[in-house]
């Protein structure tokens, strides 16, 4: 059967389309004619092929089917002459991974196609006499299958990624259906890829037992016009898929063994090759020619049974032979014989029997004309070189047909870091960081339409770096062959400038937003939150610690930590920050890495850190500690940006601090620093309304210092003021955080206790009374003074539901405490 010629299997009923049609039109034609492929023609010549597998790839990549089909067709068409034998055709299919070949006649005219399935349906009996079973050629033991609920899109992606033409659908390990490339073509215009595959699968599915003969499998495929079968084990579970491609590969591999008995036929095929082809046997001491094709005999004469050095000079052969023994192949090695120049490619197959070491397959091509042509091209290129080396732009000349670089100027060598010899052994695809297919399409546009293409590209240099360039690509002809001339300008400095401008613009926009937010903020705390957001979210530091400083006291009054909370402070509250590096200096203190000198006070973990002061009116009002986990994070540009942020922030903070100081002055008693009567009344009224709404209790305590007039009369007003401050501290330190303590007038104080019952008010008052009795106040003359106070308590709603009523009740209770002997609590 394998001696049959390809023309016996030609299929002339093709799905043929003009190259300019859309993908949708192509797949509609394939669907209508029930074919798995379509050939695109231009001027009567096949220029591309679209297959079922292409449809799956296009769908998973989201390509619109309204695109021009030619842009997505396979251009590397594999063809075979009609007079070739079927085994040769089958070998081409297996080696190139295709299921069909274009068939051409002796004049290279397209006459049809030959398909793998047609060949397999007529495989000669020699192969099937071996009684191979399905399990003998099952290549994929790790079953690729999906469940019924898998989405169609996931199935298509799996088929694309794993390169399979069908997916079995299994349930409990048993095959219940199959989805194939042919199914997708039939359904492409009606399917919804988000739906489960069970809506589109073919069911029931044809299966075959792994112990079935290959001959039977081929017949089942032929009878059902399918290309694959699901293989099941003895329990009916799916274990793999066998396709006609697997069978073809097995036939091809196994047939190599049969080839020895059909060597004459194989040699006839090799006789058709246009290059001299030889077979040499290596018998250790000699390498003898045992076969030559017709072209080799015509060029060198009949040298069968002669040593190979009768063709190749002895010195050249010694080198070639050593390379064959070491690497098993030699490719495109040139050697001279008198005025002729030959190019040799050979492969070595190790045999190692008692008499024979191995066999050598060799192809020799006369490249004398090619070499002379290349020499002429090189001379012409030298003329170009002298011109192009005078420019700073990179100039590259390469062949349009394969992208091989033929000429570069000095600027290209300098900027890319390759030697001239290295570059002229490379292709344009190796130095341009773009999709090779994109470059090929541009080359086609330049050559066919004579376009000049301009744009930005990225080149790859010899050190793995990238270089942005702006290119202009045009067509030139040398010896009538098309070349592409590239003029490329290094734009890395321009991009850096553009990037710097963009960076500065972003910084200005961020600063503008920062200022707007600061203008809207109502408190010092909110301003610090805005600063923290700017430094952490925009600048990107990991931790920000803010130490608020009272410039009058020269003490840290508060510490705020933002970002990473695993921070160890370097200054305690109420501590003087004079040892801080930036407290008395407007210069920032920067530590770039762990090897740099660090402040002795700084103890937190860091990669790098930066300390700055916030200054107002020449006095430090806050200290900033900024930490990054990265070494060298605070570079010159980032430091400058942070300084701009802090300098912008400083006057806003100063103004907010003045506003808060003025507000505090307006609501606090200057002597005791307790809230004044006006603030207490406002707070009291709001709490009464809240109590009415939520039903919680509210207590009020009036406190009067016992015998205060006597203290003033005996020790003077300075001693009286000191007593007022002492009792203020006791009151402030013995109430809850939600309570309000105020100076009600003279020696009288008031405490508002939100959500406190009578019992809680009594408890708090008792604690204050006890703490006060522990205090000893000394006059200027070191005379001791002992303080006591009287307490009156009123609670809403039991004692009243408005402020006046509660104040009256508390005042009456206070009056009773005074009359009953002072230093007591009345409720």
Q: Strand percentage, roughly?
A: 25-35%
Largest sheet: 5 strands, antiparallel
Q: Looking across the biggest beta sheet, what order are the strands in?
A: 13-12-16-15-14
Distance between the termini: 120 Å
Query: Any idea what the radius of gyration is?
Result: 47 Å
The overall strand count is 33
Mean pLDDT score: 87
Gross geometry: elongated
Proportion of residues in helical segments: 25-40%
**Secondary structure tally, helices:** 26
* Structural class by secondary-structure content: alpha+beta
Enumerate the spans where pLDDT stays under 50 for 5 or more consecutive residues: 255-266
Give structural notes.
The structure is a single chain. Helix 2 (52-60) packs across helix 8 (181-187), helix 3 crosses helix 10 (244-259) and helix 23 crosses helix 24. It is built from 26 helices and 33 strands. With 827 residues, it is of the alpha+beta class. The chain is elongated and about 145 Å long. The longest helix has 32 residues, at 636-667.
């Amino acid at each position: 059967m394998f001696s049959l010629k390809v023309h016996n299997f030609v299929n002339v009923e093709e799905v043929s389309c003009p190259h300019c049609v859309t993908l949708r039109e192509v797949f509609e034609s394939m669907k209508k004619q029930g074919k798995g492929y379509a050939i695109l023609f231009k001027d009567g010549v096949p220029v591309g092929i679209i297959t079922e597998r292409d449809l799956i790839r296009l769908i998973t990549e989201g390509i619109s089917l309204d695109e021009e089909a030619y842009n997505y067709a396979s251009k590397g068409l594999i063809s075979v002459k009609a007079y070739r034998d079927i085994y040769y055709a089958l070998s081409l299919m297996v080696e190139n991974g295709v299921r069909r070949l274009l068939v051409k006649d002796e004049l290279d005219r397209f006459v049809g196609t030959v398909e793998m399935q047609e060949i397999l349906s007529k495989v000669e009996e020699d192969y099937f006499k071996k009684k191979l079973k399905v399990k003998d050629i099952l290549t994929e033991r790790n079953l690729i299958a999906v469940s019924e609920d898998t989405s169609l899109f996931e199935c298509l992606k799996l088929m694309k990624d794993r390169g399979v033409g069908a997916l079995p659908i299994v349930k409990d390990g048993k095959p219940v259906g199959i989805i194939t490339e042919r199914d997708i073509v039939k359904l492409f215009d009606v399917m919804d890829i988000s739906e489960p595959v069970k809506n589109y699968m073919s069911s029931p599915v044809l299966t075959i037992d792994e112990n079935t003969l290959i001959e039977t499998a081929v017949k089942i495929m032929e009878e059902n016009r399918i290309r694959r079968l699901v293989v099941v084990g003895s329990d009916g579970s799916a274990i793999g898929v066998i396709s006609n491609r697997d069978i073809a590969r097995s036939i091809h591999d196994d047939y190599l063994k049969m080839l020895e008995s059909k060597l004459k036929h194989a040699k006839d095929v090799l006789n058709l090759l246009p290059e001299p082809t030889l077979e040499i046997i290596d018998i250790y001491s000699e390498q003898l020619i045992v076969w030559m094709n017709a072209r080799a005999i015509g060029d060198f004469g009949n040298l069968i049974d002669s040593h190979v050095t009768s063709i190749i000079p002895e010195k050249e052969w010694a080198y070639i032979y050593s390379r064959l023994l070491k690497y098993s192949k030699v490719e495109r090695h040139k050697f001279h014989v008198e005025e002729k120049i030959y190019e040799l490619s050979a492969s070595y197959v190790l045999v190692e029997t008692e008499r024979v070491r191995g066999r050598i397959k060799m192809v020799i091509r006369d490249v004398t004309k090619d070499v002379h042509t290349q020499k002429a091209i090189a001379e012409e290129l030298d003329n170009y070189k002298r011109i192009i080396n005078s420019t700073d732009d990179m100039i590259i000349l390469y062949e349009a047909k394969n992208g091989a670089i033929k000429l570069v100027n000095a600027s290209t060598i300098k900027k890319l870091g390759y030697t001239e010899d290295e570059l002229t052994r490379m292709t344009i695809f190796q130095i341009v960081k773009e999709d090779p297919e994109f470059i090929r399409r541009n080359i086609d546009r330049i050559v066919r339409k004579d376009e000049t293409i301009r744009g930005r590209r990225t080149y790859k240099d010899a050190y793995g770096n990238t270089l942005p360039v702006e290119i202009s690509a045009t067509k030139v002809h040398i010896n009538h062959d098309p070349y592409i001339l590239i003029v490329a300008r290094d734009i890395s400095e321009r991009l850096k400038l553009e990037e710097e401008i963009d960076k500065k613009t972003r910084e200005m926009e961020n600063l503008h937003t920062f200022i707007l937010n600061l203008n809207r903020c109502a408190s010092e705390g909110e301003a610090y939150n805005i600063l923290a957001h700017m430094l952490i979210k925009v600048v990107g530091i990991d931790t920000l610690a803010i130490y608020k400083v009272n410039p009058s006291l020269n003490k840290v009054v508060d510490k705020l930590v933002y970002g990473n909370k695993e921070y160890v402070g370097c200054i305690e509250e109420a501590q003087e920050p004079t040892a801080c590096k930036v407290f008395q200096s407007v210069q920032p203190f920067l530590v770039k890495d762990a090897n740099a000198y660090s402040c002795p006070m700084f103890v937190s973990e860091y990669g790098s850190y930066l300390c700055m002061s916030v200054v107002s009116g020449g006095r430090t009002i806050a200290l900033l500690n900024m930490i990054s986990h990265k070494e060298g994070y605070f570079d010159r540009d980032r430091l400058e940006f942070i300084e701009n942020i802090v300098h912008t922030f400083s006057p806003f903070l100063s103004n907010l601090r003045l506003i808060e100081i003025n507000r505090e002055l307006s609501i606090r008693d200057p002597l005791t620093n307790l809230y004044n009567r006006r603030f207490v009344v406002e707070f009291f009224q709001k709490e009464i309304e809240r109590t009415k709404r939520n039903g919680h209790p509210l207590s009020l305590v009036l406190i009067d210092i016992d015998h205060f007039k006597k203290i003033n009369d005996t020790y003077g007003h300075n001693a009286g003021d000191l007593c007022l401050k002492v009792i203020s501290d006791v009151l402030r330190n013995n109430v809850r955080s939600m309570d309000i303590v105020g100076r009600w007038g003279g020696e009288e104080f008031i405490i508002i206790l939100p959500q406190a019952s009578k019992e809680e008010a009594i408890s708090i008052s008792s604690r204050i009374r006890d703490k006060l009795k522990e205090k000893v106040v000394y006059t200027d003359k070191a005379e001791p003074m002992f303080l006591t106070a009287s307490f009156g308590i009123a609670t809403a709603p039991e004692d009243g539901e408005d402020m006046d009523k509660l104040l009256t009740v508390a005042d009456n209770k206070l009056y009773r405490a005074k009359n009953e002997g002072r230093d007591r609590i009345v409720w």
